[in-house]
Batch of 2 targets.
Target 1
Amino acid sequence: MLKTINCKINGRDMELQVDIRESLLDMLRDRLHLTGTKQGCGVGECGACAVLIDGQTLDSCIYMAVWADGKEIVTIEGITNDDGSLSDIQHNFVDKGAIQCGFCTPGFVVSATALLEEKPNPTKAEIRRGLSGNLCRCTGYTKILDAVESTAEQRGNKK
Amino acid sequence: MYQINGYFEASTIKEAVDYLKENENSQIIAGGSDVLIKTRERKSGYVDKDLVGIMRITELHGISYDESGNILIGSTATFTEVEKNEIILKNISSLSTAVGSIGGPQIRNIGTIGGNVANGATSADSASSLFAMDAIILIEGPAGKREIPIKEFYLGPGKVALNRDELMTHIKIEKKNFEGYKGHYIKFSQRKAMDIATLGCSIMVKMDGNKIGDLKIAYGVAGPTPIRATEAELMAKGMEITTENLDKIGEKCLENASARDSWRASKAFRQQLIRELPKRAIKIALGGGE
């Protein structure tokens, strides 16, 4: 069964025909080829598929594509600046070495983006909690937390 | 791909109830953090269903006071909404703590309090607090509206008193059950996020001078459904808060519990938590230390 939905993805208005059985993750990756969003566990435990929906971080693997109707969605591709350069959070992930295999990174960046939007000056505990829905199986989390903390500090200094 | 047959987006309670009544293969889906996972796993009872989406029904949103000062929580209020809501924080902060302990941000942004309860799991973090507050479940179906105390709503593991063609609309917390009370919820789990409670304990306590005027102790995972430690509650009335009395209360709580062994924890360990957690929760609720 197909349904027509209208949504905004990474700033672009779109009208799409989606299968009701599709997840938002399927739609983003297979229909729109936005493959920056990853499928990890597929059951909402690892956060690799996190995207922003109306500003909130959500796991797109357990979100029906038809629910995107009327919503504004931002994927990792939309977090990167228009000219293709990295966002400040992405820069800090690189600078701090917060990446190993990189599979979890888009999800972490998405969750960190939402976190800093809501709490521009988070405590260490708030950063940990804000990223607690994302798992990294390569490395520790210390450098990821450092990257987010540095971003908050840098943004604060700019003001 | 989710293994579903159809999808209907309801925009009013009536639309949802009508659809549920007409289509015997239909099933409600709220945030989907249980249903979509079970569908994908092809779990029996969740395959090839015609799902009815209820997240766009405005009547089911929001948290407010009714005309009597009771708190009404819309069944599709997400955990994030409940956690941060001012009415909840002001009157029943233990429920905010409870839903704040669920999953991670992504799950709290999509999971709903109605789904948490309707799912019928003893481990549901919101459920023990709602038990401690003697919450009332508001339901609408083809026969009209009805209300049922949460204790009667839970029938067994995964079983609740909600017919297939009925919709849980609100959860009501009566003023008499929170006014003058202080509460606290403790989730004991191996991880602080993305984990299911080994044991959950929620208490509501009302002091009468330096004595306990009323005490409500509820648990998740201390039995097949959330439970209340009614024997301990009865005994506690009129007691002063002393270490000895708290020990007695904790011990008495075992009388209502039926903890079991699971891969998460042994029965003996759970029983120790059943003794210990209400003591800690009472102390924290009353402003004492950990």
Note: Chain B has three domains: 4-53, 58-177, 182-285.
Target 2
Amino acid sequence: MTQDNNKDRGRFWVRLRRIALGGLGLAFVAGIVFWGGFNTVMEMTNQESFCTSCHEMKENVFEEYRNTIHYQNRTGVRATCPDCHVPKEWGPKIVRKIQASNEVWHHLFGSIDTPEKFDAKRMQLAQNEWQRMKANDSRECRNCHNFEYFDYSVQGRRSNAAHQAGLADDKTCIDCHKGIAHSLPPIEQEIGAGREAVAPDVFHPPAATKPQ
Amino acid sequence: MKKQTRKLAMTLVVALSLGSFGNMAAFGQGVQSLRGAGIVGNDPAPASFRVAPDGPPIPRDYVQQPPLIPHKIEGYEVTKNFNKCMDCHSWSRYQEFKATKVSLTHFKDRDGGELSNISPRRYFCMQCHIPQTDAKPLIDNTFRRAEGLR
């Protein structure tokens, strides 16, 4: 009698362990599938072909971009949209992707679906991106361009001087390199009639005064 | 006499016009431009030339010459939104970049009024100012720099 009882209890634990192990295994496999799927979809949205699949991008910014050195150059090394506009690190990437869900709304509303509408918003859009890059110290530029490895001896006379002076002033890439991959919004240069334009000290931020 | 003169003149005109029109095709084919290409065909494809590297100002060859651009201008944006040239050559910015400042002659608007920056009619710099490549002259010539500039 007691022996039978012990046997039953043993079977129960064996069964429970099997269920627990099986459940764990299933969860593990499901985790891999879910994570793999999530990552695959996210990487799919991180391709130039995805970015230019809507005409807001294709007919405006992508057309401008095709004439620049980041699209075509003598060595054929090129940057795609996400190389500059989506962080490489996982955390910031997720944050940027969540922010980008707002762009789906504007795609549905058609906020910038013609070149005219896009140009009307260009000032705001450009300044958003300048602020983002200023705030993260031009992190996406630095994924490829690392100023610690600059060889000033092969830089041009002007870029050599400007890079050394700018870095000494704690400037970041976007402080000077605006409009290198897309056309600029109106910049105030005091030529001709006045208009709504980006202020000169936004376009060329004054050197940060370093604490002595 | 009068009639005869008129007849002669008419004959001359007809003969001349017939002659010139008749020979037009042959005329076009026979002539070569100084550069070596035929008048009718396409120009030969340009060879690949390098823009002269960043350097000091290039001396003028005649006094009215718009100064040449002694650096690369590839990718420079000159649109209604932004004038890349004036980002360094305007009077408010040339000192910082040690650039040549734009000439005061460009500050006059079409009514003769003096402005404090370039006039919109002088906005498109590259209508007159151009960079130089290492291309050799297409034909030999005897051009010499103006006397006052030698």
Note: Chain B touches chain A through 22 residues (CB under 8 Å).
